[in-house]
Amino acid sequence: MSDVNLHLTLNQYRTLLSLLRSVSRVFVLDSEFETSGYPSVPTSAPVSSLDTEYSSINLEPELRVASSVHGVWTTMDLVVSVDTIQLHLYGAGVHVDANVQQHGIARFALVKNTLRYKSMSDRASEAQLILKSFTMCNTEPGNTRFREIIPAAHHNRNQFMVLYSMAGGPNGVSLAVVTIDSPQIIFSISPVLALLDFFTTKAHFDTLAVGEGNYDVKSSSTQNGRGLDFRLDLHDVAICVLENDQDPNTQAIKLNIQQLLVSHQVSFHTIFSTFFLNHHSGNHSIKS
After folding, report:
1. E strands of 67-213, at which residues?
2. Would you say 21 and 102 are in contact if contact means Cβ atoms under 8 Å apart?
3. Is 286:241 a contact under the CB 8 Å cutoff?
4. How many Cβ atoms are within 10 Å of 76's Cβ, its own excluded?
5. % of the chain residues with pLDDT over 90
6. Would you state the pLDDT for residue 80?
């Protein structure tokens, strides 16, 4: 697939969330089937000698099957590649194409995207998302001199990678590994507030609210017996907060993080390799 160009207004975003909520009501929970007189369908196969070998499947984090496990095969191996994905966000005042540029918020661009999904016959699965480059631009009307909030990466490595692995078995654990390489972020307060207003609108929370049901996410995950371990790895992060984005000689606060590693397994622990804060005056370290 070559290029994908998407445009989304605030009203369309609210409509999309409402549609997702309506679609989710089509699916009925197993408990509702049981209480309504329908026969329950077993969610897992009978216990066999194969169930005792689920521990032989490890997450390193890549999904691998030990040689001692017999009768396990790949059921799906899917790869999707897209050269460029662009998403344009617009505020609530957009009603016709003529005034769309006057209500711009931000433009996101994902370059050289690859998504791979692999599943095994024992219900183990793995998903991998790789983005070569991730950029974000401020499209608000005005005289800002700093349009690039997240400029393009200046290296040949992958800038954003996500790997999710889930072991097979009824009590299999999951592992998510997120790696972000050399993100550079330059922003002022105005576009950040506009994005927060876009994604945290009241209609958004009303749509995500459970409302009629008594579904408890915590209790459901406990009943399923699955746990999620994750690891977040940041390299060479630079965050620059501008005082006035319309002034090319504005003062700025720049935060540099050489490496930040956050992991959650049995217990939560955070490792800071190098962390220092610099304050810069003028534009000698900022490119407009």
Report:
1. 74-90, 104-120, 125-138, 148-150, 160-166, 174-181, 184-187
2. no
3. no
4. 10
5. 30
6. 93
Spatial CA neighbour of 179 closest among 138, 225, 131, 232: 232
- At 28, which amino acid appears? V
CA end-to-end distance (rounded Å), the chain: 33
Write out the two tokens for 113: 């995207």
Long-range contacts of 20-27 (CB under 8 A, 24+ apart): 20/207, 21/207
| Cα angle for residues 26, 29, 35 (degrees, 5° grid) | 115
Distance CA 8, CA 134 (A): 18
Bridge partner residues of 184 (DSSP): 238
Instruction: Kindly give the residue spans of alpha helices, DSSP state H, lying in the chain.
Output: 10-24, 30-35, 189-199, 202-208, 217-224
DSSP 61-80: SSEE--TT--S--EEEEEEE
| Single-letter residue type at 204 | H
- Give the predicted TM-score (pTM) of the model: 0.65
CB 252 within 8 A of CB 242: yes
Domains of the chain, residue spans = 3-280
pLDDT, one tens digit per residue, over 117-164 is 999 888 889 999 999 999 999 999 888 899 999 998 888 889 999 999
